[in-house]
């Protein structure tokens, strides 16, 4: 049996009565009836549902029409061609309709899986089974990266497609999941392939026109995916509070901040006690708090901090001396510096002085 014969076998059932329709159309010099077209659409849908390709089916319809052609009077050949066109069009419409429905169902299943995966709402065993369908092995450790940009993104937008194309071109199918959630790009990759998330971060930063990417730590199991995802989200939130403008943030590098923020009341007491006296400064505490932030962020290098604040070194030194006099803590003293720096971080986390403690 030739390859053509093997292809013809599964489609014969979808051509039943087709030759008779063509013969009747030519004999009666008419167009296909509504019922005939609907029957062809239904056959097209069923063929798509069992996975028969449209190219094979169209070829079979044309071949069947050739078989009818010798029996058609020369004057009715035009009707035959018109009938074949209508029939193929109706059949293809049904086939495409079924394909669109299958795509929508697949997208819905994928979206439901992503939501359950990132929220941890589903039974973990069942979730792991569903993950296999999308090429993931949740028994292994995974890490999640989240990218945000100036606008929200969805699965079909140009930014998502560009990042996905780059990942596929570089890594192929390596158990990677790229999706969107709440307007952000989300990439899930195995923990033993950190280069995937590094590439994702680079491409997402470029595609989102300078957005920001956060990478959670790797954790095992389905619950570990949720944990890593939440770490990445928390890192992005932390970047807002702490004015962290690095293009890529790693949750592992920011673990001290959740620790400091865990006891909010204790942190608020520290900020009030250590930095509260800055309220007595002319212009309020904000300029002096910005001074401390710049000073600590530059590694306590006065000249570099002054440049960051567009101040002279003399003005910067005056501000540091003013802070010392108001708070009683010297930013230049290694022991007292730690207390001041911790209180400064706490103020940024709590939004002080804009937010009351």
UniProtKB/TrEMBL annotation:
Coiled coil: none annotated. It comes from the Bacteria. Residues 288-343 form the PucR C-terminal helix-turn-helix domain. Pfam families: GGDEF_2, HTH_30. Residues 120-238 form the CdaR GGDEF-like domain. Belongs to the CdaR family. This is PucR family transcriptional regulator.
């Amino acid at each position: 049996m030739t390859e053509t014969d093997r292809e013809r076998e599964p489609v014969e059932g979808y051509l039943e009565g087709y030759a008779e329709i063509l013969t009747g159309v030519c004999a009666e010099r008419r167009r296909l009836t509504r019922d005939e077209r609907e029957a062809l659409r239904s056959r097209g849908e069923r063929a798509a549902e069992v996975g028969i390709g449209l190219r094979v089916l169209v070829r079979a319809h044309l071949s069947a029409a050739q078989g009818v052609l010798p029996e058609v009077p020369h004057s009715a050949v035009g009707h035959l061609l018109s009938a074949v066109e209508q029939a193929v069009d109706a059949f293809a419409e049904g086939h495409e309709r079924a394909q669109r429905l299958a795509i929508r169902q697949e997208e819905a299943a994928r979206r439901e899986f992503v939501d359950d995966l990132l929220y941890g709402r589903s039974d973990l065993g069942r979730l792991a089974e569903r993950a296999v369908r999308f090429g993931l092995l949740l028994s292994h450790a995974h890490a999640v990266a989240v990218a945000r940009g100036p606008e929200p993104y969805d699965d079909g937008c140009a930014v998502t497609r560009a990042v996905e194309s780059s990942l596929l071109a570089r890594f192929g199918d390596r158990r990677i999941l790229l999706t969107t959630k709440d307007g952000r790009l989300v990439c899930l990759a195995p923990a033993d392939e950190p280069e995937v998330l590094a590439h994702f971060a680079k491409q997402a930063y470029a595609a989102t026109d300078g957005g920001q990417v956060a990478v959670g730590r790797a954790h095992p199991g389905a619950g570990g995916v949720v944990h890593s995802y939440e770490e990445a989200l928390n890192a992005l939130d932390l970047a807002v509070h702490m004015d962290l403008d690095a293009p890529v943030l790693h949750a592992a590098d920011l673990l001290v901040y959740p620790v400091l923020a865990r006891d909010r009341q204790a942190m608020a007491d520290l900020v009030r006690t250590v930095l509260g006296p800055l309220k007595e400064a002319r212009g309020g505490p904000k300029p002096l708090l910005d001074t401390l932030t710049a000073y600590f962020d530059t590694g306590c290098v006065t000249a570099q901090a002054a440049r960051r604040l567009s101040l002279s070194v003399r003005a910067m030194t005056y501000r540091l001396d003013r802070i010392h006099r108001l708070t009683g803590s010297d930013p230049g003293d290694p022991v007292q510096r730690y207390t001041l720096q911790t209180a400064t971080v706490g103020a940024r986390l709590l939004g002080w002085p804009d937010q009351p403690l």
